[in-house]
Structure formats: C-alpha cells, structure tokens
Description:
Belongs to the AHA1 family. By secondary structure, the chain is of the alpha+beta class. It has helices at residues 18-26, 28-35, 128-153; strands at residues 4-14, 41-48, 55-62, 69-79, 83-92, 95-108, 114-124. It has a single domain (4-153), classed as Alpha-D-Glucose-1,6-Bisphosphate, Chain A, domain 4 (2-Layer Sandwich), CATH 3.30.530.
Amino acid sequence: MEIHHETVTLEKPLPASPEEVFQAYTDPRAREKWSAPDNTTEIRILESNVKTGGSETGKCGTRGQELNWRMDVAYHLVENDRLITFTEELWDGDNMLTVALITFDLSKAPDGTTILLLTDQITSFVGEGGVQGHRDGYTKALDNLASMLGEKVE
C-alpha cells in the first residue's frame, strides 16, 4: 500500500449567485451531470441528504459499464448558500482508495456572482494517482459547473 497525503485548493469564479451554486450542488441529478469530469465517466447519486449530519452514497465508473467504485459521504457542516463540508470515502469493492475532507466555501463577489473556494485534504492509499484523480476530477467538474451555470444565466 502506497499512502500519499496532499491538500488541493481550487478557486473558481462562477457566473451565478451563491444560492444558485448551492442549489446546483444539492440537486443530485444536476450534480451527476456537472461532477462527471468527462463523457466517458458516469456518476450516480443513490441517496443524498445534504445537511449538517446528513449522508450520501453513490457509484461511479465508466459510462455504460458496471459502476464499481462506491462513494460514501458524511456531511459535517452545511450552511445554506455558503458552506458544504464533508468527508468522502472512495471504495473499489472492499478496498478503500481514498478518504478526503472536502469544503466548498461560497462567497458572493461584488457583481453578485460566486467565488467558490474548494479545499480537498486527501489521503490516498493508492499513491499519488489517487490525489491526481481528485485534482483532475474537481478541476474538470468545476469547469462543467461554470458552463452549466453560464448557460442558465444567458
């Protein structure tokens, strides 16, 4: 087992209000669309209760094939339109791949849009590749979120 620890911080301006960004996160069907990093990946949220003390389960993998990775999420502190903090475990069968403490911090920009600061503190049990997967996945997901929100604004 190759353990690797890292903190990834991403800042993303989003063309929507914090309320609209929060709604895009808490709507499971919307999040399934924007959080998949590319067209070959599928994310399916099976159960979701985005609130302080809530939890979530999901599956992900290659679109059109069995989704064999499981995501188990525990929400620790959620403040509507402002903050979502959770831990996420990523499993492949009985093997834990990563565990992370993730925070979505939403702040209102002077023009009414949102600045999202994402902090992802990762422990990977599969080496640096697990951290790179988080970094690449969230970078692409936030780009997708910005595009989706931009389409609604126009």
